[in-house]
UniProtKB/TrEMBL annotation:
Protein name in UniProt: 4-hydroxy-4-methyl-2-oxoglutarate aldolase
Function, as annotated: Catalyzes the aldol cleavage of 4-hydroxy-4-methyl-2-oxoglutarate (HMG) into 2 molecules of pyruvate. Also contains a secondary oxaloacetate (OAA) decarboxylase activity due to the common pyruvate enolate transition state formed following C-C bond cleavage in the retro-aldol and decarboxylation reactions.
Cofactor requirements of the protein: a divalent metal cation
EC class: lyase
This enzyme's EC code(s): 4.1.1.112, 4.1.3.17
Species: Citricoccus zhacaiensis
Keyword set, alphabetical order: Lyase, Metal-binding
Superkingdom, taxonomy of origin: Bacteria
């Protein structure tokens, strides 16, 4: 598992998902904001091309109809068609905590329609 903390800026998300994923899951703490999307269909397609298994976003995505057709597990709080900033502000590979769960880089994450499980 890899992690990113950012707020209404998906520059680091795009950069990370455009790098080799090696079957990992990217967890993004967007602070729970639904004001703009942190991932859309183009970034999700790049994740597939680069071997990412999934993305968990504590925030919004866009282009849900296309994203759901991709071979990529995606969990998000909701959707919003508004794009985010692209400045690259945020932190990469830091421990995150939301939803009563701590997401630590290097941990293992499993997810299905019912929820998410994380183990060290």
């Amino acid at each position: 598992m890899r992690t990113i903390r950012c707020h209404r800026d998906n520059g680091l998300v795009k950069q990370t998902l455009n790098s080799p994923g090696h079957g990992a899951v990217l967890v993004v703490d967007g602070g729970g904001s639904l004001e703009s999307a942190l991932m859309g269909d183009l970034i999700a397609a790049a994740a597939v091309r680069n071997g990412w298994a999934g993305v968990v976003i504590h925030g919004a995505i866009r282009d849900r109809a296309v994203v759901r057709t991709l071979d990529l597990g995606v969990k998000a709080l909701g959707s919003n068609p508004r794009t985010s900033a692209k400045d690259g502000a945020g932190e990469v590979d830091v421990p995150l905590e939301f939803g009563g769960v701590t997401f630590t880089p290097g941990a293992t994450l499993w997810a299905d329609e019912d929820g998410i499980l994380v183990t060290p």
